[in-house]
Amino acid sequence: xxxxxxxxxxxxxxxxxxxxxxxxxxxxxxxxxxxxxxxxxxxxxxxxxxxxxxxxxxxxxxxxxxxxxxxxxxxxxxxxxxxxxxxxxxxxxxxxxxxxxxxxxxxxxxxxxxxxxxxxxxxxxxxxxxxxxxxxxxxxxxxxxxxxxxxxxxxxxxxxxxxxxxxx
Length: 168
Hints:
Blueprint: H1 8-102, E1 106-110, E2 113-118, H2 121-129, E3 151-155
Antiparallel strand pairs: 1-2, 1-3
């Protein structure tokens, strides 16, 4: 065993070193406490941010679901509208064909009154022949009013009934 002799000066120096080390340890402990408190605040803030982000994401998911529903309804309405347009186009085509088929139509007038409607002039002439009108006796009409001519053929597109039923 060894005995060491420590002088007062050396003891005072060691005490001073211990006091300095304790002061340094307190400083380091204070810095560590401040860092830990800062870390806790950061964790708390990050947790709050993450929870807020999750709430926002949930709200966005709900909004997306609403948007999906609106989109589905809009798609259904678009399909209905397309079907209606297709139906209307078919009706327009049918009416156009009907119009094309009656574009050459004529009316047979008997003393200016509508007697019948025919798809074309030869058909009207053949029909009038069943009433004794000569099949080939149709010529240019005189300038007489329609009411004074026994049989007359007029284009349907130009024929109109005036007040009193007279053809113009």
